[in-house]
Amino acid sequence: MSRQGPGEPAGAPVSRPGPRPVPQLDAIGGYVMGRPSAAEVERGAKLSSNENPYGPSPLGIAAAVAALPGVNRYPAEPGPLRERIAVAHGVSSAHVITCAGSDEVIHLVCSVYLEPGRRMILGSPPYGIHRIAGQLSGADLMRVPLVDFVHDLPAMAAAARPGDVIAVTNPHNPTGTAVTPEALRDLLVAVPRECVVLVDEAYHEYMDDDVRVSAVSMLDLHPGLVVSRTFSKAYGLAGLRVGYGIGQPETLEPMDRVRMPANVNAVGMAAAMAALDDREHVDRSVRMTREGRDRLAAACRRLGLEHVPSQTNFMLVRDRDGWPEALAAEGIVVRPGANLGVPDWHRVTIGTPDQMDRVIAILERVAG
Ligand SMILES: Cc1ncc(COP(=O)(O)O)c(C=O)c1O
């Protein structure tokens, strides 16, 4: 069981006298954010961080602006936002925890449910924050290789012991692939009741209608199921850092007890509530993204360029003929797979129609 995966940077060595981080820090390479600089964004397109290229919801912006004069005060209690989210999912607000991005849900799960001797079971390659949060808790990582880029849920279930956290990213980052609802249900009934199953649904909205089943509908199958969601992707609010978890009240309560008291900022809270009412913006973002994804997949098929069919707002495309460098030369920045655990691939965020025109034209020029 290795602590460091392919392409993950090693932790920084400490050589001078001074405080020593906890020992598990030695093995943790930090999270590498998608580039680029502002100048590159201006010149081309930032297709490296799976952001929404259609901007924030206009209703969300208006609500955020309206909240600004009140920011001398600490944020209000998160009750109204939780209630609004609960209604959207058909659960009670006790089933909801709101956080500073869904990454905070992941950190809270790991800090509350992991310790040395317990294990974080995750796909290999994993979503980077699952790895970092698991390692930080002092737990051992148990990496279960993806099969054909998809989580091997039977192998993950077979490995699970009481006290483990099992992280399933659905659809997965960096591969864009989804597991079937049947396989997820099988895992939930198979693993010990004393596990937490964290299903990260950051990209749920982008899934095709015929396969889009949320694990929220499976809450009754396992007491430790926690489903994380975000306003960062389809809702276009990544910069405001709002996400949430849905689970049984008894599972979420310890997480709620130890979270930072005002973890969701006042502006983000106001914007998220308004964005939930802005169906038009979400629907348009999702529809346009799916169209761009289909166009990119079709172009790859035409060019014989290996790619992984995606259920998200990004796609993994195999390196060939220097296409990533050709994009970079025109200011279009995509994410190298080397630091995502998929060397020889690049991850392309689906951009606007104009951006996809440019990407596809460059692919045709260099890989055609
Ligand atoms: C799988 C996955 N989960 C969570 C996140 C983080 O989301 P948030 O902005 O809500 O912290 C990302 C962001 O890229 C992601 O890819």
Protein topology:
Layout: H1 38-43, E1 45-47, H2 58-67, H3 79-89, E2 96-99, H4 102-113, E3 119-124, H5 128-136, E4 140-145, H6 153-159, E5 165-169, H7 181-190, E6 196-200, E7 225-230, E8 243-247, H8 249-258, H9 266-276, H10 279-303, E9 307-308, E10 314-318, H11 323-329, E11 332-336, E12 345-349, H12 353-367
Parallel strand pairs: 1-11, 3-4, 3-5, 5-6, 6-7
Antiparallel strand pairs: 2-8, 7-8, 9-10, 10-12, 11-12
The structure holds pyridoxal-5'-phosphate.
Pyridoxal-5'-phosphate (PLP) binds next to helix 4.
What does this entry look like structurally?
This protein is of the alpha/beta class and 368 residues long. It folds into two domains: 34-55 and 280-367, Aspartate Aminotransferase, domain 1; 58-276, Aspartate Aminotransferase, domain 2. Helix content is 36%, strand content 15%. The protein is built from twelve helices and twelve strands. The chain has helices at residues 38-43, 58-67, 79-89, 102-113, 128-136, 153-159, 181-190, 249-258, 266-276, 279-303, 323-329, 353-367; strands at 45-47, 96-99, 119-124, 140-145, 165-169, 196-200, 225-230, 243-247, 307-308, 314-318, 332-336, 345-349. Strands 2-8-7-6-5-3-4 form a seven-stranded mixed beta sheet, with helices on both faces. It has a five-stranded mixed beta sheet with strand order 1-11-12-10-9. A hairpin with a 5-residue loop joins strand 9 (307-308) and strand 10. Helix 2 packs antiparallel against helix 9, helix 3 (79-89) packs parallel to helix 9 (266-276) and helix 6 (153-159) packs parallel to helix 7 (181-190). The N and C termini lie far apart (42 Å). The chain binds pyridoxal-5'-phosphate.
